[in-house]
Amino acid sequence: MTPYLFDETHYFNATPDAIESGPGAFGHFITIGAAEFQDPHPLFDTRWYLAAYPDVAAAGINPLLHFIDHGDLEGRNPHPLFDANWYRQRYGLPRQTSAIRHFLAHGRVNDPHPLFDTAFYLERYGDHFAPDEIPLVHYNLEGGYRGWSPHPSFDGAAYLKTYADIARACINPLAHYVVTGRAEGRKSVPVEDKSPD
User: Fold this and answer.
1) Hey, is 98 helix, strand or coil?
2) Alpha helices in the chain, H assignment, sequence order
3) CA–CA distance, 177 with 180 (Å, rounded to integer)
4) What 3-state class would DSSP assign to 196?
5) Which pLDDT tens digit goes with each residue over 85-117?
6) What was the pLDDT predicted at 12?
7) In terms of Cα–Cα distance, which of 194, 118, 191 is closest to 155?
8) 3-state DSSP: the chain helix, strand, coil percent, rounded to 5?
9) Nearest 5°: phi and psi at 179?
10) Domain regions of the chain by residue span
11) Is the entire prediction scored with pTM above 0.85?
């Protein structure tokens, strides 16, 4: 059975050589893709997970399988823009409930992170993507790289303009800010108006 954080279409789009391999998309990820830091789903960042949880990297465990088997209910985050413990607290979920599974079912309404406002993102950009697409997924795949703003207090375009190194490297601005930018002393600025960029 394919895990809930494996999206075959996403994986084939991001890893075209997986189409030609014998084991199929999930088999390719298990045998090759994880070692190449391929992401099995827009809400699972393989490289980040291994960096954030060095015990998983040191044990040589496939990061997705670790998350599915242990990390999810331990409160580990699958992506820097999904804060499982914050999400559980905000939506009153018991500890034994998978926060990411709950979010996958309610991601058009619920906020995944204190700096991602789903309603704000939908209001500004909702007419630019499919009505059933989870806004955070859209932001991770496209909106962030366009400089779209995920929250009233974080202007994505201003961040990319201010920090041209992040724009040149094609790094998602909010993910950068959350993972390293804030600690480096980089600043976020509020969105000046409510109209779409």
Assistant:
1) coil
2) 8-14, 17-20, 24-28, 46-52, 54-59, 63-66, 72-74, 84-91, 99-106, 118-125, 135-138, 156-162, 164-168, 173-176
3) 6
4) coil
5) 999 999 999 999 999 999 999 999 999 999 999
6) 86
7) 191
8) 50, 5, 45
9) -80, -45
10) 8-79, 118-181
11) yes
